[in-house]
Amino acid sequence: MALTIAQVFREHRRFTGDGLPGEPAAAPLPIGDPQSGGHSPTKREIREALGPLETAVDEVQELVEQAEAIRDVVAGYASDAVSQGNVPIYSTGAAVAALDVDNSITALRTNGRTTTGDGGGAFYVRDTVASPGSIIDLSGDHWRLASWPLNVRMFGAKGDGVTDDSNALQTAFTAAAGQHLNIPPGTYKCVADEQIVFASGVICSGYGATLDFSGAAEGSHVRVTGSVGANITLTGNANAGASVIALSSTAGLAPGDVIRISSDQLVRLAAIGGSTTQTIGEFAVVRSITGLNVTIDGFLSDTYTTAANAVVCKLLASRNNVIAGLTIIGRGAGGTNADRGIDILYAENAVVRDCHIIDCERNGIKVEQTYKFLIDNCDVRCAFNPADTVPASLIRYGICPTGCTQRGTISNCHITGGKHGI
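^ that's the sequence the OP posted. Answer follows.
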């Protein structure tokens, strides 16, 4: 068995007075002049020369032992982390789905969604129910996506310009309600679904990303949409300039709510010789409620009568959505119903900025029944073919705020093609 350095020195100290280390006592050292019997260097000089080296070796040995002790502690922590389920790392989400993950593990990480390094690596926690983007392992246990911020590749989107990413994108936009969602640079083909619908509160950043709907069906490709509550009838006329509205019920209403008041009365364009089927309506914010009377901030712009079936409903808006940096490619000219790049309906505080909308024939961006919006620094290039079959009623606006939309700003935009800019 090989001796350690320390053992070698101990052996040397033992025998330097009488012979070489490991040799029998009294064996001569083969150093010096054999005729005179003198030794140069002397045994004492050898011991003195080796003394500091021995001390240095001892210090190194001590450091090695300390390092080994630290290594053992770290290894113990690592072992505990795995055994207690703190964050083991797997190659991909697909690999997790093929495993029966130990019940002691409550959270895990992956280095990709379908392949390692595909940009879809994420953090997951054990859950009891399915959720958008979750993984189901071999034993049927659910792993909920818990990373922040989210990005669409965590949901399986490729962005390679070939794969149909529409289902993965829709799953991502559903899961990201009230959160940031990044779309990494790439071209995301959308074929199976002609539209991607935002959940409320999604803040989407897609600088360098293109959503390509050129092979999809006609429709509104990127949609932000809420809804409205049930109609509540007025019990008396609400005149232009009034700030109090008498209702048959105030159930479900509260100060701060945005409400829409409308009736069957046609807009004033008809009174000056125009032709329209549009009816009057506007939004207002509830300031206070007293009994069945609602006081609004500001005042009404039009008169709403019970004879014209005036009603109030609450805006159940998709709130605080942001679409930033996306390029959206439509189907081009020649359709029968035509398509829209971005369609915002029943929203509040919607923002579209730094977007490029290309080859959408009906509208580049449409904003309808929305309270407060901003469209800034967008480039809209509408598709237009005078010989196509799109009905004349589809009047091809670049940016189209319509239908009771209020308190909006359109700034720094460039619009080409179509029939109308705004």
